[in-house]
Design goal:
FAD/NAD(P)-binding domain, 14 helices, Enolase-like, domain 1, 7-stranded mixed sheet, alpha/beta, FAD, flavoprotein, 5-stranded parallel sheet
Length: 475
């Protein structure tokens, strides 16, 4: 006899577990299914983000940044450390402990909110009167009946054609986060978020890192001025980035990996490395979902087709996060998860893709929200721009990190903020002010008139807003 629930969520990543908790808060009987297995064999909810994505990468970025500061910058503060060494095994163990804290935290939240958790793989069996039968296979086999189904199965790394991940020589994000020693030479294909973050981790620890990027421009999705500033910083650090390349044959051997490619100028080249990280995008996880058994519509990429409210072509079936259209970002999935739960309850929430922030957690960090300058030019939109460098910010000077700037774009006539772009220290935190401002349709003048604490990095945001009207006070 199938257990009956008001809402069954398939997947406990950021979109899924948040949808389950919000639905439970709204008074529904909720089940959440997730198959992720932790190192000890138990459940590990949190999806890619918690297990092999956002959380572990930030842990390694933090550890590697501490190491680089101790090795290169502590002396600037009068701190003598002597010979500095890195224990990679201990660093990875700390990363694993951080991941487990987050796994356990989600299980606690399920218990707190009375969400019934099933450890296994969820898939559609058939549509029945009053909902859908969902099979749970694996460690905790069961059969569930759900009136509403929320699919939040996430995504996985895209492999190079004909070159499978072995997580030994050829690594996805999974293998990149599990390296137990520092490779002498590390190759990365793809200069996106994952490529830059993983490249930064292992470069700081001593690897010679080369990133091959197919696009002719660096960080094409970011504002061009900000991207150029970031590239300049990465070049100075020794992170080698080659743009406009065409990757050819990839060969593995006992010694490592050899990548044949053509440079932007058309010359044949070869890159030999100990390890290769492939970060060329991600594909939706819909294999084994049983979409065909109920007629759930997928697109040519294998993603679930949804409307602007995350409704699928089937009544009572919703989908959120990486498995649907839109940016593959954990916080986007969370917002969609909340919105779907509230729509099930008859509410009318809204998720604005234009105010979803983007962050790259390198050093310097890169963050943005809204339109870029090149997008505004292409659209023929009249705008004003204001920038302010961290070089002129007192808190940045005290930190010893004055790299980068903040840039604000505003409508030429109304002064409404259209986009905010940042590169520099802690901009992953500073971008939140810009998101709030854009959500409330603020003008650059609004931010310019708000009192910001001194000394703080956030003053650079205020000064950039002042610069829109050409009246900065400290530069």
């Amino acid at each position: 006899m199938a257990q009956t629930f008001d809402v069954v969520v398939i997947g406990a990543g950021p979109g899924g577990y948040i949808a389950a908790i919000r639905a439970a808060q709204l008074g529904y009987k909720v089940a959440c299914i997730d198959e992720w297995v932790g190192p000890a064999g138990g459940p590990a909810p949190g999806g890619t983000c918690t297990n092999v994505g956002c959380i572990p990468s930030k842990a390694l970025l933090q550890s590697s940044e501490h190491f680089e500061h101790a090795r290169l910058h502590f002396s600037e503060h009068g701190i003598s450390t002597g010979s500095v060494k890195i224990d990679v095994a201990k660093m990875v163990a700390r990363k694993d402990a951080v991941v487990k804290q987050n796994n356990d935290g989600i299980l606690y939240l399920f218990k707190k909110n009375k969400v019934t958790f099933f450890h296994g793989r969820g898939s559609f069996v058939r549509a029945v009167e009053g909902g859908y039968e969902i099979a749970v296979s694996g460690a905790q086999a069961d059969m569930l009946l759900g009136r509403h189904i929320v699919v939040a199965t996430g995504s996985r790394a895209r492999a190079l054609p004909g070159v499978a991940f072995d997580e030994d020589k050829i690594l996805s994000n999974v293998g990149a986060l599990r390296l137990t020693s520092v490779p002498k030479k590390l190759a990365i294909i793809g200069a996106g978020v994952i490529g830059l973050e993983m490249g930064s981790v292992w470069r700081r620890l001593g690897a010679e890192v080369t990133i091959l990027e197919g696009l002719p421009t660096f960080l094409a999705a970011a504002d061009e001025q900000i991207a150029k500033e970031a590239k300049k910083a990465f070049d100075k650090q020794g992170l080698k980035i080659e743009l406009g390349v065409k990757v050819g044959e990839v060969k593995t051997s006992r010694k490592g990996v050899s990548i044949a490619y053509t440079t932007a100028s058309g010359e044949a080249a070869t890159l030999d490395a100990d390890r290769l990280i492939v970060s060329i995008g991600r594909v939706p996880n819909t294999e084994g979902l049983g979409a065909d058994k109920v007629g759930l519509q997928l697109d040519e990429r294998g993603a679930i087709v949804v409307d602007e409210q995350c409704r699928t072509n089937l009544p009572g079936v919703w989908a959120v996060g990486d498995v649907v259209r839109g940016p593959m970002l954990a916080h986007k999935a969370e917002e969609e998860g909340v919105a779907v739960a509230e729509r099930i309850a008859g509410q009318h929430p809204h998720v604005d893709f234009n105010t979803i922030p983007w962050v790259i957690y390198t050093s310097p960090e890169v963050a943005w929200v809204g339109a870029t300058e090149q997008q505004l030019k292409a659209a023929g939109r009249a705008y004003k721009a204001g920038t302010f460098p961290f070089l002129a910010n007192g808190r940045a000077r005290a930190l010893g990190d004055t790299t980068g700037m903040i840039k604000i774009l505003a409508d030429a006539a109304t002064d409404q903020i259209l986009g905010v772009h940042m590169v520099g220290p802690m901009v992953s935190e500073l971008i939140a002010e810009a998101v709030v401002a854009m959500e409330f349709k603020a003008s650059a003048e609004d931010i310019a008139r708000i009192c910001h604490a001194h000394p703080s990095l956030s003053e650079a945001t205020k000064e950039a807003a002042l610069a829109v009207d050409k009246r900065t006070l400290n530069f």
